[in-house]
Amino acid sequence: MPDNPQALPGQAFALPGHTVIALEGRDAAAFAQAQFMNDVKPLGDGQWQWNGWLTPKGRVIALFALLRLSDQTLLLVLPDADAESLAERLRRFVFRSKVAIGIRAGLHAAGRWGRPAQAEGAALAGDENAGLELDYSGAGQARSLLLAPAPAIADTEAAARWSLADLRHGLPRLSASQVEHWTPQQLSLERLQAFSVKKGCYPGQEIVARTHFLGKAKRGLVLFGGDAAIADGAEVRCRDAVLGTVVASADAGDAHLALAVLPLEREPQPATIDGQAVSEQPLLDGLER
Q: Keyword Transit peptide on this protein (predicted)?
């Protein structure tokens, strides 16, 4: 047997760094509606959406998939954030609400290439005991995210390709160095339908709404490919000028991708990151929920 077995085609593989927070109690949905940037009210039981939590200044603390299992149980699937730290920060805002916030250590995230077995679009499938399935398919690429009671096999290559797929579809994977730096509009999160400008108050809502209604969104995500690894936080340069900043990067084999925040209105120009020439690539659609 090989020392490091890999997942077979169609087999689930572990997604390192993914964790799950549960909101439970009579006020779970109301708490999520008051704190998070997307409108939770339209979600029915067994549905999910992209959502996030912002600072009062409208900067993204965490981006996650929010699953509504019932009106008293919601799950946050975090691809990057420190779940313990985020749960502790959220508890400071519970006050008198009837909601408990905890880590679902018994749910392990896994990815699988190919059409989901049952989930479709925003409708998830399964339950916590047997496992949950989410449709993570986008343009030209079918895949599903699984939350299972047992961990899946580790496959470094498959997990790296998963991260590439996230970036190709405009899902920024925020490392610790990029937390609380960017507004939802700067991360082009309207592409994922991940925030609302019409629901009631939530932290950062005034900044988000003002940017939207006054047409002040001047920067957004651009996807770049290079011949070598690209560091988060690196400067994107055109000629001698700094044009933007890398917010997320991923590597798999010979593929090296980066999402950077750049001006929305700019002339096409050759760009470099840390001295290497990079090429702009189109973002794929279809991951909105």
A: yes
pTM of the full predicted structure? 0.95
One fold for both 13-151 and 176-281?
no
**What residue segments make up the domains of the chain, in order of their start?**
13-151, 176-281
Strands, sheet with 19-24, edge to edge from the N-terminal-most edge strand: 47-54, 60-70, 73-78, 19-24, 100-103
* Predicted local distance difference test score (pLDDT) of residue 185: 98
The top-level CATH class assigned to 176-281 is: mainly beta
Selection from 179, 195, 221 nearest residue 78 by Cα: 179
Average pLDDT over residues 186-198: 97
Question: Distance between CA 135 and CA 118 in Å, rounded?
Answer: 9
Residue 283 confidence class, pLDDT cut points 50, 70, 90: very high
| CATH architecture of the domain covering 13-151 | 2-Layer Sandwich (3.30)
Output the CA–CA distances (angstroms, integers) from residue 200 to 30, 36, 41, 100, 205, in the order listed: 11, 11, 11, 23, 8
pLDDT tier, 1 (very low <50, low <70, confident <90, very high otherwise): very low
Q: Is the pLDDT of residue 150 over 50?
A: yes
Three-class HEC string of 84-148: HHHHHHHHCCCCCCCCEEEECCCCEEEEEECCCCCCECCECEEECCCEEEEECCECCECEEEEEE
Tokens encoding 158: 């498959």
